[in-house]
Amino acid sequence: MMNVFAHPPAGLQQAPHEIRMLAAGHQVSVREVVLTGVRDKEALMLAFLSGLGLTHSFGRNWDALYDVLTDPEQRPPRFALVLCDYDVFRRRNRQLSAQLESALLDAQQNVGEQGRMLWLLAEEPDSDTRHW
């Protein structure tokens, strides 16, 4: 699989294996948001709060998420957001995942216009390491 960090971000992409090693080699900061078990917007916002290390003052809405991802004071210039267990989340929550993708893609575009980079990476658990 090609190294996603060797190219500018392009929408929601499949996360490479050994993502942290690849990211380190390209000076990309990585944060993971675990979507396992997320079934509603509140749980989704809590997953981002936890994954991004936000304070409880985080507004827990689409605008607040967009602001957090596009604020140069809060995010490094080369930043990868890894959405863990995204495929299952998307199948289970079609409308919510469409809203999430819209907010994330808008943020990615804004960050790009600032001359910075925001990779959006979907990661699936490996079949041999899945916990049942």
From TrEMBL:
InterPro entries named among the record's database cross-references: Barstar, Barstar-like_sf
Signal peptide: none
TM ranges: none
Superkingdom to which the source organism belongs: Bacteria
Domain Barstar (barnase inhibitor): 30-121
CDD domains referenced in this protein's UniProt entry, alphabetically: Barstar_evA4336-like
SUPFAM superfamilies found in the cross-reference section: Barstar-related
Similarity comment: family membership: Belongs to the barstar family.
UniProt name for this protein: Barstar (barnase inhibitor) domain-containing protein
